[in-house]
Amino acid sequence: MMNKKADVLVIGAGLSGLMAAAKAVEQGKKVLLVAKGMGALGLSSGCIDLWGYDIDQPDQVCSRPLQEIDKLIQVNPHHPYARVRDVLEESLDFFRKICAENGSPYLENEGGNWLLPTALGTMRPTYLVPASMAVKSLEEADKILVVGFKGLKDFYPDVLVANLQRNAELKPSCKLEPVLVEVGSEELKPAALAHRLERGEIIDKIVQQVKPLLSPGAVVLFPPVLGSSGGAGMAGRLADELGCPVYEVSNIPPALPGDRLQKTLLHHLKTRGVEVIIGSTVTTAHLEGNRCVKVTVRCLSGTMTISARVFVLATGSFLGGGLEADIEGIKESIFNLPVQIGAEEWSVQEFLDLKGQPFNKFGIAVNDHLQPVDESGQVLVKNLMVTGANLAGCNYPIEKCGNGVALATGYKAGKLVEVVHGE
Amino acid sequence: MTDKAQVVIIGGGATGTGILRDLALRGISAVLVEQGDLAHGTSSRFHGLLHSGGRYAVKDKEAARECIEENLILCRIAPSCIEPIGGLFVEMQGDDPEYTEKWVSACAEAGINAEETDVQEVLKSNPALSSNITRAFKVPDCAVDGFRILWGNVNSARKHGAKVITYSKVTKIHQENGSVTGVELLNKLTGEKKTIECEMVVNAAGAWAGEVAAMVGLEVNVIKDKGTLLAFNHRMMNKIVNRLRPPGDGDIFVPHGTITILGTTSQTVDSADANKPERQEVLDLLKIGKEMVPEIENFRLVRAFAGVRPLYQPGSSATGRSVSRGFALLDHQQMDGLNGFVSIVGGKFTTFRLMAERTADLVAEKLAVDAPCRTAQEPLTDPVPEELLKRGKKVFGIPGAKKAAERLGDDFARVIEEAEQNAEKRQVFCECEMVSRAEIDFVARDEDCHTLGDIRRKTRMGMGTCQGTFCGYRTLGALNKYEKFARSHREYLSVFLQKRWKGIRPVLWGQQLREAQLALGIYCSLFGMERMK
User: Fold this and answer.
1) Among B134-148, B375-389, B495-509, which stretch is predicted with the lowest mean pLDDT?
2) In DSSP terms, which residues pair with A181 in a beta bridge?
């Protein structure tokens, strides 16, 4: 059986795993990342949500997310942010630096939230956004043109327009117009459309159909299909050709922005010499005392073991496969760590309850070093750190903090590899 | 607004629509009034089992005989709504062998062809079944699509001039000199009021029949009996499987296409609307189901659902003309001295046509119309022509075309035409049930369609593993151009998702929990819909 060795083994290829690997390798560690699949990052908006709404006024978009997180930690000391508040700003800086170096800059909005339109026509608060999605001053637009493609499923300009009118603050005189452009093919998939754009095949066609509809002060919104890699390249090119701002809005999967972010970070890891093994499942952890020495991995060619000094568990929640639920209960799949459920029911009656569904908060409890702990605070596995959606205590869909928690906890795990190993 | 008809039928389930068709075929003018969407009640909340009668053979011979007769009639008149896959009755270790013998002779007496078959053969072709089966018998059970039968009734009735009014509640039944003269309706969507003058009112409101009778001051004693069922995302076996023992909870599995339904429980409830499945009921069903399918936990549960059976029990004051123990036709002129008011209560889906026939016979007699029942002979749906299926395959692919043809029947041609003319409409909006944009578009235009739920019942959109997460959003894309869908998208979508959630919550583990997390990721994280205006 093959046996691999590393200083740090990161399990999971979502945002927190990628961040942990990036930060660990920066400190000169030999890092290996293994993952069952591509994780849930590709399903996300590709933006970094930090904190969406005021804690006291849950309908009010939060204007200073970092300050609101300070408040959150006061009222909810079990939130994952409480474990990483010390590194939150530096983790965001680190993330932005990596993305910018790899040609996919992420923009912040002067310390506040962006409020960005979605394909459903709602407005969504988020903190860091790829340049192609950074819609500025929609409220000043004289015209909003929403462009869809004939044959592209899952993006309906008239739906976006109908709801944007109800959900966004716009100039009373602002005109909204939906349009479907035709680029030739019958059924279009986002990835295929992005490639055809990048090959330059259909830009003229789009410009020809869109340009006559523009007027001064217009803003153009597209589905998130403008190019397969990060950066504002394609949106920028269309903006130049059309002579007005062009943006992408977030949409249901398969959408490209989450995908692009994953590609950007994977590319970064590759350039730094991190070995990435996708499509292999860690099945068992081998412990000696309260330290993990190696894990067994099932891959296409059979099984192998990977030994490491420090392990990072970044396998996600139910969706990512890090937690598994059956009729009896919930377990963490690899280390069999206790999953914190609390006394709550798993779910509540209203699907879209403003307090969120309790099961999203289920996960692993950790200390300030992100080591898993039992109820009394005793560390369960000393050289293991747990990150991202594996963690207990955060209701990310409602709080709008999923990628923020993943980014900061992943970063901190990467930063602490030396400390945790020494313990 | 005032309308006129000879007969107003209250209740848009299988029985009500069956009566509507029967009367229409006899040339009697009739309007059916339904408080919600057609089939929203018990007629869509059952196993989807067309009984052979085997289940009732020992306990209720008359009901058993009615079942087998109706089973054969429906197979003849509505083949496109029925999968004649056959059923098995299995005796298991510990079951009473004497009951089996009793059952065999009871089937013979009722005219049900129950043929013993080799247990090893049964296990070979149905490997999910337990090896504790000791004896097995084949019976002519069928899987039936309740929705399709019901719309078959309605389409056929409409062709013969009948009318259907949905989302309208009867608020008053007018009487003059001891005779019914009309009904007053309140449209639940628009708030509009309407009166229909009529000579007779037929109360076919199922679990709501007691409430309808109370409007004219009469008592019809309907016991509301909730039955919970489970839908699995697998075809667990190739035949319907019944436990061969006195009928009890959780002892029938019915495969439909790629899914399987297991049920049911039985519990008396206070309200006809008490159709919320509970987690404990799910656990109870799984426990009983496990005896027949030992690996039941390994099959993915999609959702639980519940219906309220209307069981009729003659009250102390009522002396109903009990047609059989299965159902009862109440002539309130004879019983209570109210002319022109008739209730049809009890019964089961399999015998809906017979119930309708008996009711329509009585109505015709009272209206002095001399026309025989034709519903046992006239085909309910026309088979889809081969040529049309070929064209369908070109635009929807083979499985998509087949499913659409089954669902759409006579309307298939129009949907194909739209897809042929507009490539965009060939998009598959619901991948689980293979529903095209053309079909959703077409159904959305239907005058009875007012919500995503209505579209779901007519197309099966949202009934697969994603439970509407993707197709619910997509359907908005088809609705926006129709003026009648003028309410907010938030309302359409949140009501739809909430109804789906009701069935997911009691089975929230395994893959369905992952699915729910994805759904919340989409609607909250990506769309912020919880705060949408």
Assistant:
1) B375-389
2) A149
Q: Is the pLDDT of residue B324 over 70?
A: no
Chain B residue with Cα closest to A321? B514
Chain mean pLDDT for chain A? 95
| pLDDT at position B325 over 90 | no
Rounded to 5 degrees, φ, ψ at A311 are -120, 140
- A347 contacts in chain B (CB < 8 Å): 505, 508, 516
Q: How far is Cα B271 from Cα B268, in angstroms, rounded to an integer? A: 9
Strands B259-263 and B252-256: antiparallel
Instruction: Report the alpha-carbon angle A237-A240-A241, nearest 5.
Output: 90
Chain A, 67-106: which have a CB under 8 Å from a chain B CB? none
What residue in B sits closest to A328 (Cα-Cα)?
B509
What tokens does B373 get?
Answer: 């029942």
Contact between residue A140 and residue A161 where contact means Cβ atoms under 8 Å apart:
no
Chain B positions touching A124 (Cβ under 8 A) are: 526-528
Taken in order of first residue, the domains within chain B and their CATH numbers are 2-42+147-221+313-366 (3.50.50.60), 73-144+225-308 (3.30.9.10), 386-531 (no CATH)
For chain A, percent of residues with pLDDT exceeding 90: 91
Is the separation of the CB atoms in B58 and B411 below 8 Å?
no
- For residue A41, list chain B residues with Cβ-Cβ distance below 8 A: none
Residue A202: both structure tokens together = 């259909």
Token output for B415: 């949907």
In this complex, do B520 and A250 lie within 8 Å of one another by their Cβ atoms? no
Yes or no, beta carbons of A151 and B424 under 8 Å apart: yes
Q: Which residues are within 8 A (CB) of B72 and not within 5 positions of it... i.e. 6 or more apart?
A: B140
Vertex B233: Cα angle to B228 and B238 (nearest 5) = 95
A252, B533: Cβ pair inside 8 Å?
no
pLDDT band at B319 (very low <50, low <70, confident <90, very high): very low
A178–chain B nearest CA distance, Å = 12
Structure tokens at B519: 């759904």
- Please, are residues B154 and B20 in contact by the beta-carbon 8 Å criterion? yes
Residue A158 to residue B532, Cβ atoms within 8 A: no
Strands (E), A15-159: 31-35, 106-107, 114-117, 123-126, 129-130, 143-149
Alpha helices in B293-385 (DSSP H): 332-336, 352-366
Full set of structural domains in chain A with CATH: 2-101+259-422 (3.50.50.60), 136-248 (3.40.50)
- Residue B323: pLDDT band (50, 70, 90) is very low
Out of A49, A167, A356, the one facing B532 most closely (by C-beta) is A167
Q: With 60 as the cut, is the pLDDT of residue B321 above it? A: no
A132 touches chain B (CB under 8 A): no
Distance CA B406, CA A387 (A): 49
User: A360: which chain B residues are within 8 Å (Cβ-Cβ)?
Assistant: 517, 520
State whether residue B527 sits within 8 Å of chain A by CB: yes
Q: What does the DSSP 8-state code read for residue A255?
A: -
Residues of B (370-389) whose Cβ lies below 8 Å from A: none
Q: What is the model's pLDDT at position A184?
A: 80
- ipTM score assigned to the predicted complex: 0.97
Place of tokens 């389409």: B155
Rounded to a whole number of angstroms, the distance from the CA of A335 to the nearest CA of chain B is: 19
Kindly state the average pLDDT of the residues B275-279.
95
Which of B156 and B1 is assigned the larger pLDDT? Answer: B156
Q: What pLDDT does B322 receive?
A: 37
Whether the CB-CB separation of B59 and B247 falls below 8 Å is answered with: yes
What pLDDT digit, counting tens, does each position of B189-235 carry? 999 999 999 999 999 999 999 999 999 999 999 999 999 999 999 99
Give contacts of B513 with chain A, Cβ < 8 Å. Answer: 318, 325, 346, 359
- Report residue A230: phi and psi, to 5°: -70, 180
